[in-house]
Each structure stands twice: as structure tokens, then as C-alpha cells.
Amino acid sequence: MRNIKVFNFITLDGYFEGSKRDISWHKHDTETTEYALEMLNLGDTLLFGRATYELMASYWPTPYATMNDPIMAEGMNKADKIVFSRTLKKVEWNNTRLSKENIAEEIKQLKQIPGKNMTILGSGSIVSQFAQLGLIDEYQIMIVPVILGTGIPIFKGMNHLLNLKLTSTRTFRNGNVLLCYIPAE
Question: What pLDDT, in 10s, does the model give residues 55-89?
């Protein structure tokens, strides 16, 4: 059975995006990039909502991304990707397919198919929807030591308690702290 995990950067005050979709506060350094590459090399299928897909697809397939971060660009461009959106008409980033209907049912079916795990990047609305349905098996939350004061909370729209169990932590030299959780039984 395949698992779904979430990997998201958040601020100390709980936002995964600032105003106007700002993510310039993400702290990336060599160590953080190496960790992201380790995760990407696991071969997971990447899952996105529309807004995160548009952001990623506007950057990773470009010559600038290849020049700036060639190894990560290659991994992102080669990865299988699924975009969940009712409004997008088509997706053009290679190895990407669009899912428009019955998102929860599709995920339940995908989890039953043998294969590698699936990772949600960004995509707050998808994270909240899947969390409420009990579809997420692991939460990897990278806390960035900044306070924005305003933005979009990572679990916007959650309407019930979700108990989690801490499974590991990792402190990065740049001050980021990775907290890994699984749903508590």
C-alpha cells in the first residue's frame, strides 16, 4: 500500500504562504536542498493543488531553474506529478496529469496500487481536504524561524481535531526545524 506524506515549510506562526502567495521567507541552504533531494530521490509521485502546480510549473522547467539548481530541476522535471483542480483545463509540465473529479476516491484507489509513495508539496487546500478525510500518512513540517503576522494557515478550513504523534525531529544549521508526525491512533 502506498502512503501519502506532506512536506511543507511553515512559519512559527503557522503560515505556509504569506500575503499574495509569498514564499520568499523559505530558508534554503545546502543542507536543506540536500534533504529535499533525498526525499525527491525516493521517487515519490508529487501531488499539487492548482496554485502550487502553477508556481512550480512556472519555475522548474525553465532554463533559469536548470542553471540555478540543476540537480533539483532534473528531479522535479522527471518526477511523476498529479494536479488536483476543478478549474485547470490542461497541464503542460512533463510527467503531469490532471485530476478533476472525485479526488478523494482517486486517492483512495491510488493508495491501494503498488508503487512508490505520494508527496504533497505546498497545496494547502489539498492538505486540509486530505487531512480531514484521514488520507495523509505522514506530515513533514519544516518550521522556518520567521513570523509573518499574516498569510494562509497550513490547515485552513480544518473543522475537527486531528491528533498526531511525533516520530522524528531534525534541526538544520540555518535554524529550520523539521518535525515529522503520523496520525495518532
Answer: 999 999 999 999 988 988 998 999 999 999 999 99
Query: Of 26, 14, 6, 9, nearest to 151 (Cα)?
Result: 14
Per-residue exposure over 27-48, b if at least 16 CB sit within 10 Å of its own CB, e if not: eeeeebeebbeebbeeebbbbb
- Which CATH number does the domain housing residue 150 bear? 3.40.430.10
In a domain, 105, yes or no: yes
| Spatial distance between the Cα atoms of 1 and 13, rounded to a whole number of angstroms | 34
Q: Let me know how many helices (H) and strands (E) the chain has, helices first.
A: 6, 10
Cell numbers at 184, concatenated: 495518532
Residues 6 or more apart whose CB falls under 8 angstroms from that of 41 comprise 75
Amino acid present at 125? S
